[in-house]
Amino acid sequence: MALSMTRDERKTPLEAWVLMAPALAILAVITFYPLLRTLYFSFTDAQISAAGTSGNFVGFDNYAYAASDAGFHAALIRTIVFTVSSVALETVMGVAVALLLNQEFKGRAIARTAIILPWAVPNIVNAMMWRLIMNPEYGALNAALTQTGILGAYRSWLGDPSTALAMVIFADVWKNFPLVAFVALAALQTVPSELYEAARIDGAGPWSRFRFVTLPGIVAPLLVAIVLRSIEAFRVFDIIYVMTRGGPIDSTKTVSFYVYQTYFSYLDAGTGAAYAVIVALLSAVMISGYILVIRRQEAK
Amino acid sequence: MKEFKFAVAGAVTLLAGVASLSPALAETTLNALFMKQAAYSEDDVKAMTADFEKAHPDVKVNLEFVPYESLHDKIVTAQASGSGYDVVLFDVIWPAEFAKGNFLKDVTSKIPAADSSKVFDGAWSTVTYDGKRYGMPWILDTKYLYYNTEMLQKAGIDHPPKTWAELEADAKVIKDQKIVEYPIVWSWSQAEALICDYTTLVSAYGGSFFKDGKPSFNEDGALDALKFMKTSLDDKVTNPNSREYLEEDVRKTFSNGDAAFALNWTYMYNQANDPAQSKIAGKVGVAPAPGVEGKSEVSAMNGSMGLGVTSGSKHPDEAWSFISYLTSQDVQNKYAKLSLPIWKSSYDDPAVAKGQEQLVAAAKQSIAVMYPRPMIASYQRLSSVLQTQIQSALFGSSEPKAAMDEAAHQASRLR
Predict the structure, then answer these.
(1) pTM above 0.90, yes or no
(2) For residue A208, which of A204, B294, B365, B373 is within the disulfide window of CB 3.0 to 4.6 Å?
């Protein structure tokens, strides 16, 4: 849309700045200031103390440490695994559910309302709920799987380093796929039905219709949803804090949790800040990548 | 100027005098931070506080309870942001770090000299760093060995194990007789609880964390401690879910009759014996954690906690009087069911021992040998390194020796 604007419309008159000023002021206080402070700390050996946080300038020492810290690297890789898998699953499930909800059937309104429920559940509550469901002794998941014969005996889910991250991803997908589903559903309703008719006349099967009619019609809004989810998934913290606290053997310790631990458990504000800056930069790279893709999509 | 000050002081005194006659008093509000699990229950702390408020009508105390796992971070973030608590409950492993960051007031001069000899040394070491006291010890605690008397009887075992090897053997008998699938349950989640269990075993095997300032947990007794843990898992006598359990999970498993042995704090004794919360009430035995032949009679670690006044508190005097009240012998004797007093003479008080003679007898032995975790400012980081590497060995991701060597390597860089 931005590309279709004329030069005159793009000018930013004074009123726009005036109108935006309050929002910018708030943004400056709650975003830019902490960001600059974090950037400053990342070049110091600051420790948290009761008198406040302060330290001496140490140059790029913290960054050098971060570059050599195997724990930080492992946390980064884990976070990327978490982000890619949960966003991919959420997208596939979200689109699939949206396609179903776009069909005419009795009770569709109820189904559409029900599907949003997981998304309305607060993160902490969602995490608590799944922790209970996945409890090794009295969790509903074990009961369901053994009673249906899928699983031979009760097992540990969150306490097993080979499954813990997958189970946390599962809980995250359950909570967040409705967002993708709703964006996709809204987009589906903008795809003109004539296109499907034309495709059908041309002999297109269901898969071809999805690939060449549906997908191009919803891809732009879907990309926006994917961007939002990716940014959120990359900084995942609360669900980890409640479900596993990073364990077992660090298998669910994502980079946000790692930063939190360095900052608040070890009181090492300098190193923690350097980690945080690196994570913010990586997020920025990821977001720029998405923006490029979206731009290209719009230009088509 | 001086006269003016006197006049003001006089007027204030007069006003205060008048004010104290009227029912509307100038109230001081204290904010206090406690923990949710283990030791005194929330109800106990609320009841003690209500009694304190009754005796001090001008002081009101707001209580906040958080899980132990959040306690440390809550204390430091609240303090560093300049707002927060007057009184905080703190763990034995934090004074070094808190002293460095100036989080707590040095209260050495406020503690009556006469109290020094009346309270256990282990309790004092909980609040002491570099010769200064940063609070009053309150929860004097260590890990005890709990056993299910009925299960032992069924297996033909007539006394609780005296050594860890004996415990392992007893557990095998119980398992072989199919009395319970996994006889032993621990709190080996990736958390401080794991280090508490591990430290108990380190003390039994005569190991140490540091020798001459260098990590020594990758050798001798400290390594044997980890090997014991791993063997008990390999022999399937330890509940494998222990690796995701905290103390409350241990209590639930034991109280549910799903374990013959459990390592846990004082508080479990009366809760596991409470028919409302436990299926095995009346069948709970407690003993000091076992020793190792030729190395130790019994084993114990210092898991005590203290109450301190934060350095930012605006009401340090009221805060101290609240702490003095909670840690006083009378109050501790009255609420001795979930946490035992810090006062030596309480252990010979029949009123304290009543109904829990076995626990008090075990405590007398254990408290004398409480082994400390390292008292260093970077303890939190060290603990985190140890938790990860111990778990790595327990899950079989690495051999115990390799895991502890890696921990020692990481720990040698701690500042």
Answers:
(1) no
(2) A204
